[in-house]
UniProtKB/TrEMBL annotation:
One of its GO terms (biological process) is iron ion transport. InterPro entries: AAA+_ATPase (IPR003593), ABC_transporter-like_ATP-bd (IPR003439), ABC_transporter-like_CS (IPR017871), P-loop_NTPase (IPR027417), Siderophore_ABC-ATPase (IPR051535). The keyword Ion transport applies. The keyword Endoplasmic reticulum does not apply. It comes from Gemmobacter caeni. It is a peripheral membrane protein. One of its GO terms (cellular component) is plasma membrane. This is Iron complex transport system ATP-binding protein. Its main location: membrane. Pfam families: ABC_tran. Belongs to the ABC transporter superfamily. Residues 3-237 form the ABC transporter domain. It is found in: Cell membrane. Keywords: ATP-binding, Cell membrane, Ion transport, Iron, Iron transport, Membrane, Nucleotide-binding, Transport.
């Protein structure tokens, strides 16, 4: 399993943000983290990436304590795409994606053919090869999201952590990115923060629900994305429906 967490507590300053979390995530597939704003989702993701050390409890990745990993080893195992990432002005898509190779580069040595092949493969996987020499700021929102995902793919880590990868995208871009994320989950462990519960129900293999820094539920979408756990997570009722014909799930606040 990519992550095993036991009694994890984390403070930011004097505030306890995560309270005694315990869960294990399955190997491979897509795990979604859901919950209201301010419940600790991004803090948890940064903790899983090793950027925020817990005050107490244990955090293991593939059986090894995350705290025992060097920065380079951790980056080779775990790749994080932060929310609303911004590239420096003038940076091309290829140059951005090449930054994902940093954990594998030898000091003061240029990229090898293997590094260049990893960059080319990541660009191809997200469909941005034709735009590789364009400046990142010239891309559409959906294309920029793909460029940042290509960076974490070039990092060649087995576990990807994505903070709201669908945020601020229109419906066509969301649909395209969802299809790409589904493909990524076939060969990697992907953990992502999601706000759209219907997308979580259709995309994820596993879901974590948080409220006020505490774990409400953890398990398959059919168990977590139900009225009881969702009511406890968000404080309101939900209608969990299935479309006629396709049977696809739809999750809406009750009364809409």
């Amino acid at each position: 399993m990519p992550f095993a967490v036991q009694d994890l507590t984390l403070r930011l300053g004097r505030t306890e943000v995560l309270h005694g979390l315990s869960f294990a995530l399955p190997q491979g597939g897509i795990t979604g983290i859901i919950g209201p704003n301010g419940c600790g989702k991004t803090t948890l993701l940064r903790c899983l990436a090793g950027l925020l050390p817990p005050e107490s409890g244990s955090l293991h990745h593939a059986g090894q304590p995350v705290a025992s990993l060097t920065h380079r080893d951790r980056a080779r195992r775990i790749a994080l795409m932060p929310q609303s990432a911004i590239a420096p002005p003038g940076l091309t898509v290829r140059q951005l994606v090449a930054r994902g190779r940093t954990p594998w580069l030898r000091p003061f040595r240029p990229m090898t053919r293997a590094d260049e092949a990893a960059v080319a493969g990541a660009l191809d996987e997200v469909g941005l090869t034709p735009l590789a020499d364009r400046a990142v700021e010239s891309l559409s929102g959906g294309q920029r999201q793909r460029a940042w995902i290509a960076l974490v793919l070039a990092q060649a880590s087995g576990t990807l952590l994505l903070d709201e990868p669908l945020n601020f995208l229109d419906l066509p871009h969301q649909a395209g990115l969802v299809q790409m994320l589904r493909r990524l989950g076939e060969s990697r462990s992907v953990v992502m923060i999601l706000h759209d519960l219907t997308i979580a129900a259709r995309l994820c293999d596993h879901v974590l629900a948080l409220r006020d820094g505490r774990l409400v539920a953890s398990g398959p979408p059919s168990d977590v994305l139900a009225d009881g756990p969702l009511r406890e997570t968000f404080g309101i009722g939900f209608d969990c429906l299935h479309l006629p014909g396709s049977g696809g799930p739809v999750v809406l606040p009750a009364g809409l």
